[in-house]
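Reviewer 2 asked us to include a model.

Predict the structure of this chain.
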Amino acid sequence: MNKLQAMEVFVEVVDTGGFTRAAENLQLPKATVSTLIAALETTLSVKLLHRTTRHVSVTADGAAYYERCLRILSDVRDAEESLSRTRLSPSGRLRVDVPTGLAHDVLIPAMPDFFARYPDIQLEMGCSDRSVDLIEEGVDCAVRGGQLVDSNLIARRVGMLNFISCAAPSYLERQGTPTHPQDLLQHRCVNYFSARSGKILDWDFNRDGERLQVALPGLIAVNDTNAYIAAGVAGLGIIQTPRFVIEPMLADGRLVTILDDWISDPLPVHVVYPQNRHLSAKVRVFVEWIAELFANHPGMRLPKAPPPAPRAAPANMEFAV
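Predicted model (C-alpha cells):
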C-alpha cells in the first residue's frame, strides 16, 4: 500500500463526505478508493470511517488522524515544491469557478497572458453565477462577488465592482426616462435573483448622503449575468450592472445610462479557497494573477486607501529618520 496515496484518498473522502465523489475528484476507480481506505484501517488497527449505504462520517480516531494527515501531506508538498521547478513553473490540473460576466469580459480575454506565464497548467474553468461547494465539487478556488457567507473559506479581496443603471432606448421611448430612483416604482426593471436562496435582490441608490434601498417591479428575473444584460438590451426593463460589462452596448447605443447622479453600493470581489486545503503552487499563482489583473483593470481595481491622519506625538517621544 502507498501510505501517502492512502492518506490523500482518506482526506478526500472526509472532505467530500463519500467514496464516489472522492473517486471522481481524484480520478480513481471507486474500488481503488475503498481498497485503500480498508488497507489503511487494517494497518492502523482502527476504524476511521462510519459507513452506511447513503452516508460516510468520520470516527473520533478518524478525525484525529485526518488532522495529522493534513499536516503531513502539506509538509510533503512543501518539500517537493522547494526541491523542484514547480514554484517557477507550476503544472497540473487546476479547477476554478468564476461568475459568468467576469469570465466573459475580464478573465477569458486575459487568458493568453496566463498561459504564456504558466504553460504547464491545465485549467478547468466553471462559469456560472451559482456559488459552488468547493470541497464537494473538487474546486480548487473560486472568484465570488458580494458579501461572503461561508466562514469555512479563506478569502482574499481582489477587486470591487461599481454599478450603473441603464436601459435600452426602445424601453425609454415607450416608458419615459426616470429622474429619481422613486420613479422606478412606476417602471419595469429586470430583476436578479440569488441562485443560492432564490431571493430577488433589492436595488440601492446613494447621492449626497441620501440612501435608498427598494424592491422594484419587473416582468422577468434571472440569475445569470449574460441573460440579465440581454434582457436589458431587448427592452424588457431597466438594469443595474457594472459599467465595464456593458461598454460595447453603451458605445453602439444599444443601452444608455440613466440616473447618472446616483450610485449603487460597490460589490467586493474575492478569491476564495478551502482553509483545510494546502495552497498549491498552481493555486497560488492563479490567485496572484487574478489580483494583478484586477488591479490593472479600471472597472475592477480596489480603491486606494486614504493615508492615515497624522497623530500628535506623546511628550518626550523621539523619532529616528
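The chain has three domains: 3-82, 92-157+273-295, 163-265. DSSP finds nine helices and 14 strands in the chain. We have added this to the supplementary material.
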